[in-house]
Amino acid sequence: GAHDSCSHRCGELRGTCSCQVTCQSLGICCPDYKEFCLQISPYSGSLMGGKDFMIENTALNASSVLICRFKQKIKTNGYIAKDGKAHCISPLLYETGFIPFEVSTDDGLTFPYSGTWLSVHHSKVPDGEKCTLVNQTKWQYYGTLNTDGNLTLTWTQQALEATQINIEVWGYHETGDSYSENWLAEWKYLYTLAREIPNNGKYSFIPVPAKGNYSTWDFGILRITPSSFSDGQSNIPSIWSSEHALAWHLGKDFRNDAAAWATAKCIEWDRKEDNLPKFMEEIIDCPCTLAQARADTGRFHKDYGCDIEKGSVCTYHPGAVHCVRAIQASPQYAAGQQCCYDSKGTQILTHDSTGGSTPDRGHDWGSPPFMKPPRIPGFSHWLYDVISFYYCCLWSANCHFYMKNRPSSDCRRYVPPRAASAFGDPHFLTFDGLNFTFKGSGEYTLVESDITYLRVQGRTQQARFPNGTGAQVTGLSAVAMQENNSDVIEIRYSEELNLEVLLNQKVISFSEQSWMDLKGLFLHSTADQNITVMFSSGSGVEIRGSGGFLSLTVLLPDKFINNTHGLFGVMNGNTDDEYTFKNKTTMSIHASPQQMFEFGASWAVENGTSLFTYDTEFLLKNFFYEGKHNASFQPVFFPHEDPADPLVKEMVSLCESDPFCRFDVLTTRSLQVGNSTRLSHQYHKLLTENLGPVISCGWLDHPTNGIKNGTNYLLGTTISFLCNQGYELTGSKERICQVTGAWSGDTASC
After folding, report:
1. Is the pLDDT of residue 15 over 90?
2. What is the C-alpha separation between 30 and 20, in angstroms, rounded?
3. Residues 6+ away with beta carbon under 8 Å from 594
4. Type and span of the H or E element at 471
5. Where exactly are the transmembrane stretches of this chain (predicted)?
6. CA 458 → CA 529, 591, 605, distances in Å?
7. Which of 468, 510, 547, 653 is most buried (CB neighbours < 10 A)?
8. Furthest C-alpha separation in the chain
9. Which of these, 442, 745, 732, lies nearest to 610 by C-alpha position?
10. 150-178: buried (b, 16+ CB within 10 Å) or exposed (e) per residue?
11. What is the pLDDT of residues 168-196, one digit of tens each?
12. With pLDDT > 70 as the criterion, what percentage of the chain qualifies?
């Protein structure tokens, strides 16, 4: 019947069949599911738009007039290619993340087809999809001392189906009053730089100052489009350059004396900053050491502009080997934090060095709900924090103005998160440092918290011996999580033992993007499939697949103290209440493995609160219709170690004294499982070591008419002071950072 169609109904459960994404593996889809619920390729592109994507699964009538509509309001024209495949063009968006879209084949009367498009931060788009500013520095310094000649732009000619193209200049600005309702962002077409030139992948020119008032636009982007479209037409097939400082088109006043022009701009910016709210008070403090910064993965992520894993090319931060950015923007002003470290792992402060980290009035990655300043991904940040750096530091010698408004934060208020882990045939290491082994088979609450409704659930399944028969132990096969009303993320081993990541029950691919901005969280996957989920509370979950089991680490900031329960215990620094049952009774920490088994079983989840996806007959049968804790499964509590067993000798040389490694080799008869357990255990120990608290006494200034020796302000370090010739020192010649967090001695002066 007509009521069982997926037209206009993707994602819904119908009367007799399903239009939900799980219907395919369960074999319960409505007959027209594939026609109306769209799969697209590619699935992602820059938020600037103009990218052509193909609808893979639906053949549409070649004579149809196609309209694609994003977020129910932004319309772009689609088309049907010669092979009968339908295509859409992505629009200019002022946000990142998955964007719903619909397709009409009747010129916009009805939109029965639907899908999602992933809008990506412009600097996270692969280079091949942009046109390249050859020697980008020259573009951005053009007209300053000793920078002239011609500029060259290159692009992949196959990216546009056109024999002739136009090159346009666009500018970005924000209008209205800062931090008010009428503050708006706009990308604006300015003028066409070159018209009807051959699409051969290269264009060189000698730039001239832009006519009229266009030369007041100093931040913008280039767009290449087929010449068949009109100037500045929106949402058409396009290749964009990277966003950049438009030095090359600025007016004669800039070219005649760039330093004077930039100095005036810098002073004007400094005056404006004085009238804006102070965002520094509400951004998170920096971790004290590089080790802490790299371990706190729920709150900090590597800064792509200065990354130790990519050879530490730190152009804007000389002397640094690695910088991190705070993942979440600050709550009220959407500001960003950056923290940079030297080769000794010490934080570099702007007070001591131009290589110091600088916080951002606009978070580089933008922040939900996006759409309006100061939350526009990338571009708000450029306007407040980058172009001003050009004015003050790069085009003129006024960097002290910039550093005055963007000083580094030190780490005196930084409190590291606490970590809990589960791995192997599951060994649990709690937030407060206890460890136990719980080998139930079922689905359990690992941690939950009332303050943000954070829930992390784990599924354990029976382990297999190398010959395929069942072992008397279990391992983590899936983990699902959510915080408040965020998207639900699940990471699992499929029945074919492939690692899968599900977003709201749908398997997602990282083939195009390794980072995704989702609802209430960010998701990152490394090339070797280490998955990190970063929730808006600052809590982080890291998952690694190893040896057929998942290993998991949860990192929680200090606001969760006394607010957690589940298998990972009550996070409060006190181990006495670690084994708290779901009904709030507690058990001694010296309980037997059999009693531990009962404690674990009490944390089985219920169908009503389960976050897992049951999209196969196997999962429905074993975990949905059955009880969540398989009471008939009896695990091995004390594995037997037989000296005559040839495996024991290999086990001893592999595991040495690691009890978890030994346990897992004996119970699974697999050295590979034992080794991945050993590595996970080592990882957890190193992580908790790196997250140990570090005492900082805060920055010390040099005396007027004198110097200081030392830029490390952590516990036990000494800073010494010397006066210039002809001056005498009063106060302390040396000051030591003490365990109280205060410096010894008195302020030095000359």
Report:
1. no
2. 9
3. 637
4. strand 470-482
5. none
6. 18, 23, 9
7. 547
8. 98
9. 442
10. ebebebebebbebeebbbbbbbbbbeeee
11. 999 999 999 999 999 999 999 999 999 99
12. 100
Residue 249's pLDDT band (cuts 50, 70, 90): very high
Sign, CA dihedral 225-90-92-333, equals: negative
Confidence (pLDDT) at 472: 87
Residue 732 identity: S
pLDDT at 1 over 80: no
CA distance 348 to 433: 32
Burial of 696 (0-12, 13-18, 19+ CB in 10 A): buried
Cβ neighbours of residue 525 closer than 8 Å, sequence gap 6 or more: 501, 510, 514, 531, 532
CA distance 458 to 575: 22
pLDDT averaged over the chain?
94
Residue range 80-108: mean pLDDT, rounded: 94
Cβ atoms of residues 571 and 418 within 8 Å: yes
Convert the pLDDT of each residue in 586-622 to its tens digit. Answer: 999 999 988 999 999 999 999 899 999 999 999 999 9
Q: Which residues are registered as beta bridge partners of 427?
A: 423, 437
645 Cβ contact partners less than 8 Å away, ≥ 6 residues apart: none
Rounded Cα distance between 4 and 15, Å, is: 7
Averaged pLDDT for residues 513-519: 95
d(CA 613, CA 562): 30
Pairing of strands 244-245, 322-326: unpaired
The whole-angstrom separation of Cα 358 and Cα 338 is: 6
Identity of the residue numbered 309:
E
Quote the CA–CA distance of 425 and 461 in Å, as a whole number: 9
Query: Which residue in 419, 444, 448 sits closest to 433, CA to CA?
Result: 419
Residue 629 has a pLDDT of 92
Separation CA 729–CA 473 (nearest Å): 70
Confidence of residue 578 (pLDDT cuts 50, 70, 90): very high
Q: What CA–CA distance (Å, rounded) separates 369 from 50?
A: 22
Q: How confident is the model at residue 4 (pLDDT cuts 50, 70, 90)?
A: confident
Distance in angstroms (rounded) separating the CA atoms of residues 500 and 22: 14
How far is 718 from 740, CA to CA, in rounded Å? Answer: 15
Strand arrangement of the beta sheet that strand 74-77 belongs to? 44-46, 113-120, 97-104, 67-70, 74-77
Residue ranges in 582-670 assigned as alpha helix (H): 593-601, 617-619, 646-655, 659-668
Q: If you write DSSP's letter for every residue of 542-561 in order, what string do you get? A: EEEEETTEEEEEEEE-GGGT
Which of 685, 689, 682, 696 has the alpha carbon at shortest distance from 291?
689
pLDDT for 478-488, tens place per residue?
Answer: 999 999 999 99
Residue 587's Cβ-side half-sphere holds a number of Cα atoms within 13 Å equal to 19
- Beta strand spans in 72-181 (E): 74-77, 79-80, 85-89, 97-104, 113-120, 132-133, 151-154, 164-175
User: Above 90 in pLDDT, residue 719?
Assistant: yes
Give the relative orientation of helices 671-690 and 659-668 as an angle to the nearest 10 degrees. 160
Contact 525, 514 (CB under 8 A): yes
Rounded CA gap, 647 and 624, in Å?
Answer: 38
User: Can you say whether the dihedral through the CA atoms of 190, 195, 196, 198 is positive or negative?
Assistant: negative
CA distance 25 to 262: 61
**pLDDT-derived band of residue 2, with 50, 70 and 90 as boundaries?**
low
Q: Rounded mean pLDDT of 407-423?
A: 95
Hey, what are 220's tokens?
Answer: 């913008």
Asked if 342 and 322 count as a contact pair (C-beta separation under 8 A), the reply is: no
CA 578 centroid distance within chain: 32
